[in-house]
Each structure stands twice: as structure tokens, then as C-alpha cells.
């Protein structure tokens, strides 16, 4: 096999997806002297706004995929749900990083959990629930409470149905669920953390510090970096993320979401082979942030250490209510504002984020964080 190709500044990186993750990847790529071309079905997308070019088209439209590939040297993703045929076509035309196998694994929660088990990574107990009979068997095996999730295309808690007890199951309209589903035992976690891990073409692995994530209405609200956990636990989380990245032969960047259980165990919740919302703090607290790490890994360039030079809290700006706080944020010294350039602030839509930096080792407790967030 020939050695993987290296793409140097001046080359064009193709990003599938036009959202904020693509936008911030494109900005990191531009800083390193790369050109960026975006594939998205959306006119005026956040990523296309800061890229050299855009192919407007659906992710499974062969003509659009061919046009996109013709404009780029190497392909990566900010949105990983491209069809198997679309991925195969892209792969036949250009290097695709991360590769098809890992994308297909992360697209399907059953494939993902199966692969994680093969890699020795513990998860919540789960059963496939692809139809009503499997769901009955899953409930018999797992008991209540449990969570049903669509196997594909879920994000920000969408496509999830908590079943706290038998009464909730009885109330479920069994004809209506969007099969196929996966049933997961409900994890009464102590906290949620994540690790961003990058892996280069030469197998170099870099892990950013573990981050604690706090969700509101199923959407990430706050990330605390570093996660306020024992150093051994933080280290174990990085080791686990590195093991999964190596096992999946990642080339690129991946977010690994985990639950910390009451006894200090780690369960992998899900993986996302792309930049991740819980890694946004790295933009203001690391020498090379997650987006630069993503670009470097995809281009085949050396990966610098994931070095953090400060502590940070990241707060998502969701919908019109948070957007109304922009003037106050701009007037607050020490709050770094990142906006995604979305025209319309619909409720539940991620519009931007704010990072608050603290000196290294000085992340405050809950009260201090609340005070620093002020009106946010
Ligand atoms: P999404 O793709 O929407 O991020 P996740 O599987 O990460 O889907 O679920 C979103 C959130 O729902 C998680 O971050 C966690 O707070 C909660 N959650 C998901 N699965 C479980 C589970 N098995 N037990 C307890 N909480 C869960
Ligand atoms: Mg998640």
C-alpha cells in the first residue's frame, strides 16, 4: 500500500456539511494557509460564509458529490451522515479522512455499541429494538427505566423516548415509533464528560483534557475544562478515548462522550468522528485548538501536543433568548464571543458560544462559575 498522502498549506480541504463545526474548521484551515470548499444543501450556510467555494447540493446527489470532489484535494466532515453510496463515491475520487468504516459505525447506534464492545469499551446496557417484538425482548432484558433512541440521525436529544416505567411503555403508541430503535438502560450517572482525541496518519494520538458537560433540554449548555474530577479518572478517560481512536483506526478528530458512574467507572455514551461542541473551549484555552487538530490530522500534518494554557467554561448560545444577551457579552471583559452567522435565531438552535477563561488550575466551583457567567 502506498503511504498516505500529505496535503500542505495551499491545498484545498473539502468539508461535507455547512454548519458551525465546518465554519470553525474552515477558519482554522485558513489560518494554516489551506483553501476550503464546502458541500451543503443549505444556501447561506455558516461554513460557506468563510470558505473559498461551495457546492450546493444534497449529500446523496451524485452530481453534487462529483462537483465537490473535483474542487478539493482531501475530504473531511462536519456532518457525518452521508449515505454509504455517497461515501463510496467520495472515496473513489479523493482521500476521505476519517474513513468510511468509522463514519458508518458512528452513524448507527447499534453498530457503534457493537464496535465499542469489541474494543472493550463499556457502555450502558442495551438491546436492539428494531421492531415491536425486539422491543418487548429488550424491556424484558433491561427492565425500567430505559431510553429508546432512533438508531440514526439523532442529535441534541432528538429522536429519544425515555420510558421511566411500565406505564410509560403502555402509553407508547407502538405503531408510531420511528423504527429501528435501540433500547438503553438508563444510567444514573454522576456526571457526563467527554474527551476530544485526534489521531494522525502516522498513528500519533493527542487527547485534549477531559471536559465536563452539562445539558439542558437535551442540548449541551455548559462545558467545564478541565473536568473537575480526580486526575486518575481524567487520565482513564483520555486512555479510553485513545483506545477507541486506535481501535477504529481514526485519522482525524473524534469526540468521545462518556458517563461517569457513581463508583467512578466510565461508560462510553457515543462517539462523533468530527469536531464536537464540547471541544469549543479549546479555541480560547489551547495553543492548537480542536479545529486546528482536525485540519492537521486530515491533511496528514504533524499533531502538536494538546496543550492547555488555561481553564475555561464554555456556554452555548441557544435561540433568540441567548442571542438577546450578545450586547451584554460584548461589553463583558473576559468573555470571548463566537457567533456562527446564522440569520434566524429559532428556539433550540445553536447560534454561538461564549468562553470564559480562568488562569491555569483556577477553575472555580459552581458559585464562582455562576458569578462569572453573570446574566448568561
Ligand atoms: P445525542 O446524539 O442527541 O447527543 P446522546 O445519546 O448523547 O444523543 O443523548 C443525549 C443526552 O441524553 C446525553 O448526553 C445524556 O445526558 C442523556 N442520555 C443519553 N443516553 C442515556 C442513558 N442511557 N442513560 C442516561 N442518560 C442518557
Ligand atoms: Mg450526545
TrEMBL record:
InterPro entries: ATP-grasp, ATP-grasp_carboxylate-amine, ATP_grasp_subdomain_1, PreATP-grasp_dom_sf, PurK, PurK_C, PurT/PurK_preATP-grasp, Rudment_hybrid_motif. One of its GO terms (molecular function) is ATP binding. GO terms for cellular component: cytosol. Gene3D superfamilies: 3.40.50.20, ATP-grasp fold, A domain, ATP-grasp fold, B domain. It comes from the Bacteria. Residues 113-299 form the ATP-grasp domain. PROSITE patterns: ATP_GRASP. ATP binds at residues 109, 149, 154-160, 184-187, 192, 215, 269-270. Pathway: Purine metabolism; IMP biosynthesis via de novo pathway; 5-amino-1-(5-phospho-D-ribosyl)imidazole-4-carboxylate from 5-amino-1-(5-phospho-D-ribosyl)imidazole (N5-CAIR route): step 1/2. It is an enzyme of class 6 (ligase). Keywords: ATP-binding, Ligase, Nucleotide-binding, Purine biosynthesis. It catalyses: 5-amino-1-(5-phospho-beta-D-ribosyl)imidazole + hydrogencarbonate + ATP = 5-carboxyamino-1-(5-phospho-D-ribosyl)imidazole + ADP + phosphate + 2 H(+). The keyword Ligase applies. Coiled coil: none annotated. One of its GO terms (biological process) is 'de novo' IMP biosynthetic process. Its EC number is 6.3.4.18. The keyword ATP-binding applies. Catalyzes the ATP-dependent conversion of 5-aminoimidazole ribonucleotide (AIR) and HCO(3)- to N5-carboxyaminoimidazole ribonucleotide (N5-CAIR). Catalyzes the ATP-dependent conversion of 5-aminoimidazole ribonucleotide (AIR) and HCO(3)(-) to N5-carboxyaminoimidazole ribonucleotide (N5-CAIR). HAMAP family: PurK. Homodimer. Belongs to the PurK/PurT family. This is N5-carboxyaminoimidazole ribonucleotide synthase. The lineage of its organism: Bacteria, Pseudomonadati, Pseudomonadota, Alphaproteobacteria, Acetobacterales.
